[in-house]
Design a protein that fits this description.
This protein is of the alpha+beta class and 157 residues long. Helix content is 15%, strand content 44%. The two termini are 27 Å apart.
């Protein structure tokens, strides 16, 4: 399903739904960051997606990482909580979602990189390579918080 992200755009459509979403910031032993290139908007991102009924937030993050990248991970902490009502996502089926998102810190514990229906590219990216990628501002914010983390959880509106 195609999507369009609106970020602080006064002409954005009004949200008609809200969803709980999770994402995971994962670094390998060399400090590289696990990133995907999304199929729905062609932007680079950390892996993530929507919470499903019957799972915890951490289970959702682990599942989404596995589904999108092939990497198994273990959640080790929370980077931040994000609930900006000026960031809405319009889907081609008419849904306009205000997302509530929890970004976790996780570590890789197995698996091997592969793409999926949601990720056309998957790879370990050097932090210095991040500015060269086309990344949505909301994901850049999570990356900045993760890379600058001093041990506290950040609440961002």
């Amino acid at each position: 399903m195609a999507r369009v992200d609106y970020y602080n755009d006064p002409n954005a459509p009004k949200a008609n739904s809200i969803a709980v979403a999770v994402s995971a910031f994962i670094q390998d032993d060399e400090g590289r960051i696990l990133m995907i290139r999304r199929t729905d908007n062609d932007l680079y991102s950390i892996p993530g997606g929507q919470l499903e009924l019957g799972e915890t937030l951490a289970q959702a993050a682990v599942r989404e990482v596995r589904e999108e990248t092939g990497i198994e991970c273990e959640v080790t902490g929370v980077i931040g909580l994000y609930s900006n009502p000026n960031h809405v996502i319009a889907y081609d089926d008419g849904e306009v979602r205000q997302e509530f998102s929890i970004c976790f810190r996780a570590r890789p514990v197995g698996g091997s990189i592969r793409t999926s229906s949601e990720s056309k590219e998957v790879g370990w990216i050097e932090p210095l390579g991040i500015p060269k990628l086309k990344i949505h501002p909301a994901i850049m914010l999570r990356l900045e918080h993760a890379l600058g983390d001093k041990g506290q959880c950040i609440y961002y509106t």
